[in-house]
Write a structure and sequence with these properties.
With 410 residues, the protein is α/β, with parallel strands linked by helices. It is built from 15 helices and 14 strands. It has helices at residues 3-6, 9-13, 19-29, 47-58, 75-87, 106-117, 132-140, 157-166, 188-201, 224-227, 257-270, 276-288, 291-316, 343-354, 384-407, and strands at 33-34, 100-103, 123-128, 144-151, 154-155, 171-174, 204-208, 234-239, 251-254, 323-324, 332-336, 356-357, 359-360, 374-378. Helix 9 links the parallel strand 6 and strand 7. Helix 6 packs parallel to helix 7. The longest helix is centred in the C-terminal third of the chain and has 26 residues, at 291-316. The protein is globular, with a radius of gyration of 22 Å. It binds pyridoxal-5'-phosphate (PLP).
């Protein structure tokens, strides 16, 4: 069968393989110690309380068995999210629970927003580097993703202005807090400047914020959506993946009422509705626990993981040329090894030779060939005893790779 002759243009030409998934697959096959997985630490999944929540909902008379008639999501959960975010000072006045749309994770939110707004040939701005699975969604829509260099305090405003002077862009996709992959957080001052640019050049801001509640530094700064006030051009994405469990597949979008209406229509054309069992169980869970305590436990644990990995890396891998940053929260350390000319090649070398997995930083850049000496290391799942061993293996791998690179230059 000539399948390519039957597939449409998007399927033939615009679907990308996940490079993250490819590395994770080889890492698992080689039983490597992973400093690569951007996932929560399994021991922090609140399994017992979640089981109780599911059981309570299963034995209730809530309408969990039929098609859900709340296509934007279970009302109680939308109300809870709006109140929670408002309590944290993250929302502007105009947002009510009617502006909250529940998703099957932020990834679905990104995909539905792409369906709502993007056409082949459009140009959008993204941080460089950024989250590749979002870039994949945008490219699937046929758009050009232009990178704005990301600095430790947020996007490079001058570079953004230069790009905007020569291009009409439809939106800017940003991960402002403890970014994936860098761990960088955009300052509130930069958020205001970027909002001014968004008004001047009339583009939307997609604010993807799944790591905000994993902070080691207290309040990690405000949101674009709050700072924008009455201007409804910011669309906010939140997620329960990093603070409860990604297997639940649940997140949310906060947007202008007109956008929420269209998201609902796209939802109905795609999956009809989301499971009410899940949404009610999450509502039962978040209202039944001491959420502040739960989030503090997560942040405290991840901070310990960060500190342990950082100090082991300083001892074992930095002497081999690794330069590393210290993030204020989230899951990731970002760094570079200036003498490496192809981090992708090093990643596979390290897995096969020293059984340690890292993420090459170049896969996070919107333009090919950039960040070839950069590296993302995840501390989320790395307990302190693993950190020591992982850093040692990384140091060994770097030493051996340097010799191999010198013997067989690219
Ligand atoms: C920046 C960013 N956005 C979105 C997602 C996807 O999140 P979800 O599990 O809510 O779909 C991730 C997952 O790693 C992420 O890092």
């Amino acid at each position: 069968m000539d399948w390519p002759g039957r597939f449409n243009d998007c399927t033939n030409n615009r679907l990308e393989d996940s490079e993250i998934a490819a590395i994770m697959k080889v890492s698992a096959a080689e039983k490597a110690l992973s400093l690569a997985a951007g996932e929560p630490f399994g021991a922090l999944y609140p399994v017992g309380p979640l089981q109780e929540s599911f059981n309570r909902v299963l034995s209730s008379d809530l309408p969990i068995w039929g098609y859900s008639n709340t296509r934007a999501g279970v009302a109680g959960l939308c109300v809870w999210i709006a109140e929670w975010m408002r309590g944290d000072g993250l929302l502007p006045e105009w947002v009510t629970s009617d502006n909250v749309f529940i998703t099957n994770g932020s990834q679905e939110g990104l995909s539905l927003l792409a369906e709502c707004f993007l056409e082949p040939g459009d140009t959008i701005l993204v941080e460089s580097p950024s989250y590749p699975e979002a870039l994949g969604v945008f490219r699937k829509s046929g758009v050009k993703c232009l990178g704005v260099p990301l600095l430790a305090d947020g996007p490079d405003i001058e570079a953004m202005e230069t790009t905007l002077a020569g291009q009409k862009v439809k939106m800017f996709y940003t991960i402002p807090t403890f970014q994936n992959p860098t761990g960088f957080t955009t300052s509130d001052e930069k958020k205001r400047k970027i909002l001014d640019l968004a008004k001047k050049h009339d583009f939307l801001i997609i604010e993807d914020d799944p790591y905000r509640n994993l902070s080691f530094v207290g309040f990690p700064g405000g949101t674009y959506i709050h700072a924008a006030g009455d201007d409804e051009r910011v669309i906010y994405l939140g997620s329960f993946s990093k603070i409860i469990a990604p297997g639940l597949r649940c997140g949310w979008v906060v947007s202008s009422g007109e956008v929420t209406e269209k998201l609902v229509k796209h939802r109905v054309m795609g999956t009809l509705c989301l499971p009410e069992l899940l949404q009610n169980a999450i509502l039962d869970f978040v209202t039944g626990i001491d959420l502040t305590r739960h989030l503090k436990r997560l942040s405290d644990t991840y901070r310990q993981h960060r500190d342990a990995l950082l100090s082991s890396l300083r001892e074992h891998a930095c002497p081999e040329g690794l330069e590393i940053t210290t993030p204020g929260g989230g899951f990731f350390l970002w760094g570079r090894v200036p003498w490496i000319r192809d981090m992708g090649r090093f990643a596979y070398f390290a897995i096969r030779n020293e059984k340690v997995a890292i993420m090459p930083g170049d896969i996070f850049f919107p333009q090919r060939g950039q960040g070839i000496d950069t590296i993302r290391l995840s501390f989320s799942k790395v307990i302190p005893s693993m950190a020591e061993e992982g850093a040692k293996r990384l140091g060994e791998a770097l030493g051996k790779f340097r010799t191999a690179q010198e013997e067989r230059p690219l």
